[in-house]
Automatic annotation (TrEMBL):
PROSITE patterns: ARM_REPEAT, U_BOX. GO terms for molecular function: ubiquitin protein ligase activity. This is RING-type E3 ubiquitin transferase. It comes from Adiantum capillus-veneris (Maidenhair fern). GO terms for biological process: cell surface receptor signaling pathway; protein ubiquitination. ARM repeats lie at residues 604-645. The keyword Zinc does not apply. It catalyses: S-ubiquitinyl-[E2 ubiquitin-conjugating enzyme]-L-cysteine + [acceptor protein]-L-lysine = [E2 ubiquitin-conjugating enzyme]-L-cysteine + N(6)-ubiquitinyl-[acceptor protein]-L-lysine. CDD domains: RING-Ubox_PUB (cd16664).
């Protein structure tokens, strides 16, 4: 045979092909391969193999284009190799095995192309190429066969796949080496490459994954031992699903996989592949014999053929000779005797080698399963179990407590005897019956029913679905509200309901979660139970259920309403944008306690929301509304400052680029920051104070620019109230004045919207002391006295009434026109009513407003107040009012007492029989005439002097000085000095007044010294108090202020002028 010319003269095309082949050969560096793991996603190796396949295909096509068909055997063989490599790369199961095979085939192509230049067309070459082509053909058939098969089929044949692939790889390696050996002229480099590749291929070891091998072995064992245990089958199905990359919960996908396997079994039957068909039929029977449909049909047959509900005793052959109990796994020894497997194994483990019954020596200790006897025992047990279930139903329907308890006990025992029971119970509809008993049953059996239900639904999805369909979720939720024993069992039942499904039944968990979401009380009850520290297991289970319910944002909101904020905060901080928006919106709508606000603040809500304010518009609105809801808590105000959000809030409030839906919550937040705390929180993130004057100016400008219907106005006014009620610095006050703030606020008194007008009243109350004349003039000009009186009479809004009274208390008392207007509007009655029945703030403001009506210049107005019972109200204030109220009460008493001397009349003379006898009537001890509470406003007759003395004893308060002032009206130098002084002595008032000289406030000391000066003009009283007074006066003259020292010196000098003293 002549030598065939393999290659033409080298050209640029040849160089290109040669470079491509060298590149392909250089990139394939395989080592002996052991494949044991499966990857569900493309790996780096997958991508490299794909690149190699494309590269080899391109090089071969280019080679054929250049060389034509000079060596058709090699060209055709290269194409076959590439086709096989491509096909192997796409097989779905045993990917490692097939892709390793594909990689080796990719390595062969450049090696063959390298030999093409140097091989000769000899007989040995032709035989070697034919051998290689046969092996490649086998590989191609092998790959194409399994490429068409389903994943489950490939799983069942994984051992055969690995063995065949390994044999093919080794055969191809040997055949490739023969091609090289048949041509001695092949270069050393090419021969070395061939030898290296052949060495790798003949030593290759493929292995199926341990997971797949375990599944195959388990299936073979189940077929061999006639396994009918559903737990075994369910576990097997879970393993198969995992190996095939299918979700266990996706029952529809598993059904499709088994349907494909059934079709492949039918194809095997058509092809007369009897052994293959039989094996596949056994697999299908194993996986199908324990399906719920089959088991429930078996129960229906048993029930329809059963003539009695009495249990059948076991036959003797069913009993193990060793244990005397019914056998579950009967096995026979070589003598033919049958025993329970576990007991005979124990016998052998003790060193025995004889048959326990016949005593024969056993040549081998092999055990053979007695399948027929086992089936008979199972049939007997099934009939008895069917009877027991029917009997249990009758007992449950009887309504008798003892029978119900017995039925529950029987069901629990039955459950553990056979895997079929759960499906038979489902067929008997016992779950619905148990739920009805749980609804209406007494407390004694409620716990037992919950325990039985939990057992029945465990690993039984059909019973779970029955429970859900019968409204069982709602019944169980109601049990959560009972005592801890019942609620613990109820939540454990819910946990069981939410366990993943097994086998072919779809999971009921999504439906359970939906029903729980629809039950109004479920989340609240679960949250309460999760916080139970007395039973940690119940609390843990409750939290497990709650975590499952976190699948819906709406449920997180309900959890937050029940004061469990952790899931909501997790979603707010780390959820999607949509979830964050929902959570922020929910925070804006929740009704929160102070503790809840602090909890949310601790979890980082303020910082997160502050960051959201800087985002898109919808995030701004939601975050600002949430912050509005959270900043009622002082701790959260601090967190808002720490987050540097106060300037941000002000920017959103004052900037005209934002609409009302942004400015309103910003205004509400600012209101909460300043209303009770003034300028405390007007600081930036660094702790530097913001310019309160500028803020005040911006608020006034905003207030002046707002439309009449703006919802922002009330918050702005309240913010102004907070600022002006706090001590403003001089610059802020100057800003307020320059901005004509009072002129902006006064017109709001005329607004018809109560919410705006009322807040304006409260703001003006804070400003009234500094702007009294302006406010008074506006009230008179606009005739608003009637409005203020209406506000005084509005007891439902106590704060507004107190503010109105507070304004009146600050207005000039000398404005008689205003006083007259108020009297005509019946303000006096309203104010006295507030002093008598209002709260602390109302009383304080009302008595301040009443002072203008107590002036001595208008005795008739004083009389009107006395007739309305003002003395009683004043006494009440002295005992229980605030310090301000006590001061004002004492001032009012002083005003009334100032009129007494003018109103007091001389005593009348009475005739006795025929003689004119001057008999004096009872006269006032102080005023020397006829006095009365209502006629002369006498403090003595009104019995308020002891109350004033009580005030004097409060030495370090302003009320003590006011009381001294009132008592001073009883000691008038030109009229009743001695009587008044003696009266104060008798009422034990002088001693407290002396103490006030030493320990009182500066104004109190001045008033006390002035009164003592008058008292000590009575010689006997001066002598009586001289010793004590001298010490106190010397001390004040020496150590007191300049004014007090001078005054004390004058009083001391008057004492020294007395020649002697006597005891009174």
């Amino acid at each position: 045979m002549t030598t065939r010319t393999c290659f033409p003269t080298r050209s640029s095309s040849y160089v290109q092909v040669h470079a491509l082949l060298l590149e392909a050969a250089s990139e394939v560096k395989l080592e002996p391969c052991v494949c044991s793991k499966r990857s569900a996603t493309p790996t780096k190796l997958d991508k490299m193999l794909e690149k190699e396949l494309r590269l080899c295909e391109r090089s071969c096509s280019l080679r054929e284009e250049i060389l034509g068909a000079e060596v058709p055997e090699i060209s055709h063989l290269s194409r076959e190799i590439l086709d096989t490599a491509f096909a192997a790369h796409d097989v779905l199961m045993e990917k490692e095995t097939f892709r390793s095979l594909s990689s080796y085939f990719c390595s062969i192509t450049p090696v063959l192309e390298g030999m093409r230049r140097e091989i000769k067309d000899s007989l040995a070459t032709q035989q070697a190429l034919e051998s290689l082509q046969r092996d490649i053909g086998k590989a191609k058939s092998f790959v194409n066969l399994y490429k068409k098969k389903s994943r489950f089929y490939q799983l069942m044949h994984c051992r055969n796949i690995v063995k065949t692939a390994q044999d093919i790889t080794r055969d191809v390696g040997n055949s490739l080496a023969l091609v090289s050996l048949a041509n001695t002229e092949v270069s050393v480099d090419i021969r070395n490459n061939v030898e290296k590749l052949k060495d790798q291929m003949i030593h290759v070891e493929y292995q199926a994954s341990q997971q797949k091998l375990e599944i195959v072995e388990k299936i073979e064992m189940g077929i061999k031992e006639h396994k009918t245990d559903q737990a075994f089958v369910n576990d097997l199905i879970r393993q198969i699903a995992c190996a095939l990359g299918v979700a266990v919960e996706d029952s529809s996908e598993m059904k499709l996989i088994l349907d494909d396997f059934r079709r492949e079994k039918e194809e095997a039957a058509e092809k007369k592949e009897r052994e293959e068909e039989a094996f596949m039929e056994q697999i299908i029977a194993l996986l199908s014999r324990c399906t719920p449909e089959v088991i429930r049909e078996e129960y229906r047959v048993l029930r329809s053929t059963g003539s009695s509900t009495e249990e059948l005793p076991p036959f003797d052959t069913f009993l193990c000779p060793l244990s005397k109990g019914v056998m579950e796994d009967p096995v026979s020894v070589v003598t033919g005797q049958t025993y329970e497997r576990a007991r005979i194994q124990e016998w052998f483990a003790c060193g025995n080698n004889t048959d326990p019954i016949t005593k024969q020596i056993l040549p081998v200790l092999d055990l053979k399963p007695n399948h027929k006897l086992r089936e008979c025992i199972e049939e007997w047990a099934d009939r008895n179990h069917c009877s027991q279930i029917c009997n249990a139903r009758k007992k449950l329907e009887s309504g008798e407590g003892a029978l119900i308890e017995q039925a529950l006990h029987d069901l629990l025992e039955l459950w553990h005897r056979s895997y079929k029971i759960r499906h038979w119970i489902a067929e008997e509809q016992l779950v619905a019956l148990l739920l009805e008993l749980l609804r209406s049953g007494d407390k004694g059996i409620r716990c037992n029913i919950l325990s039985v239900l939990q057992t029945i639904i465990s690993d039984g999805d059909d019973n779970k679905r029955q429970l859900v369909d019968a409204g069982g979720v709602g019944v169980v939720v109601h049990c959560l509200a009972r005592n801890i024993v019942v609620s613990k069992l109820a939540v454990a039942l819910l946990v069981e309901l939410l366990q993943s499904s097994s086998g072919f039944m779809p999971s009921v968990a999504p439906l359970v979660l939906e029903r729980l979401s629809q039950e109004g009380e479920s989340i609240m009850l679960l949250v309460t139970l999760s916080q139970n520290r007395e039973d940690m297991e119940a609390a843990h289970n409750a939290e497990l259920v709650l975590r499952k319910l976190c699948n819906k944002d709406e449920n997180l909101v309900e959890m937050a309403k029940a004061n469990w904020f952790t899931p909501l905060m997790e979603r707010l901080c780390h959820g999607s944008d949509d979830s964050k928006l929902k959570m922020a919106t929910a925070l804006g709508d929740l009704e929160l306690t102070q503790l809840s606000m602090e909890t949310l603040g601790d979890k980082g809500a303020i910082q997160t929301l502050a960051e959201m304010v800087a985002g898109k518009l919808e995030f701004k609105v939601a975050a600002l509304r949430a912050l509005q809801n959270l900043t009622s808590c002082r701790a959260n105000k601090k967190r808002l400052v720490e987050a540097g959000a106060v300037p941000l809030v002000l920017d959103h409030l004052f900037s005209v680029r934002f609409a009302v839906n942004v400015r309103e919550p910003a205004a509400a937040i600012f209101e909460k920051l300043v209303l009770t705390d003034g300028t405390t929180f007007l600081v930036d993130a660094n702790g530097d104070a913001l310019d309160s004057g500028k803020v005040l100016n911006d608020l006034l400008a905003l207030q002046d620019s707002l439309s009449s219907a703006s919802t922002v106005r009330k918050h702005v006014l309240s913010s102004l109230q907070g600022l002006v009620s706090s001590p403003l610095d001089s610059e802020a006050k100057k800003t307020f004045k320059e901005a004509h703030g009072i002129a902006i606020l006064l017109p709001l008194l005329e607004r018809r919207e109560p919410e705006v007008r009322d807040v304006a009243v409260e703001v003006l109350c804070c400003l009234a002391s500094e702007h009294a004349h302006e406010i008074s003039s506006f009230i008179m000009e606009k005739k608003l006295a009637a409005l203020l009186v209406r506000l005084l009479n509005n007891e439902r809004q106590g704060d507004v009434a107190a503010a109105a009274a507070g304004i009146l208390a600050c207005l000039p008392q000398e404005d008689t026109s205003l006083t007259k207007e108020l009297v005509e509007e019946n303000a006096v009655s309203a104010l006295i009513h507030l002093v008598s029945h209002g709260n602390v703030r109302l009383k304080e403001s009302a008595i301040g407003a009443l002072l203008r009506f107590t002036l001595p210049s208008d005795i008739e107005l004083q009389r009107k107040l006395v007739d309305l019972g003002i003395f009683t109200a004043l006494k009440g204030l002295i005992y229980s009012g605030t310090q301000v109220s006590k001061v004002r009460a004492a001032i009012a008493l002083r005003n009334f007492s100032a009129s007494t001397m003018k109103l007091s009349t001389p005593p009348k003379l009475h005739r006795c029989c025929c003689f004119l006898v001057g008999k004096a009537s009872v006269v006032c001890r102080v005023h020397g005439g006829q006095c009365g509470e209502k006629t002369t406003f006498c403090l003595v007759e009104a019995e308020v002097v002891p109350d004033l003395v009580l005030l004097v004893r409060n030495r370090e308060t302003d009320s003590a000085g006011a009381a001294v002032d009132a008592l001073s009206t009883l000691v008038l130098e030109n009229e009743n000095l001695e009587k008044g002084a003696r009266f104060l002595h008798d009422e034990k008032a002088v001693g407290p007044i002396l103490d006030l000289v030493s320990h009182g406030t500066e104004p109190s000391k001045e008033k006390s010294l002035d009164l003592l000066r008058k008292v000590f003009k009575v010689k006997k009283l001066a002598g009586h108090y001289a010793d004590k007074a001298r010490i106190l006066l010397v001390d004040q003259a020496t150590h007191g202020s300049e004014a007090i020292g001078k005054q004390a010196t004058r009083v001391l000098a008057s004492l020294e002028n007395f020649e002697s003293s006597s005891v009174y």
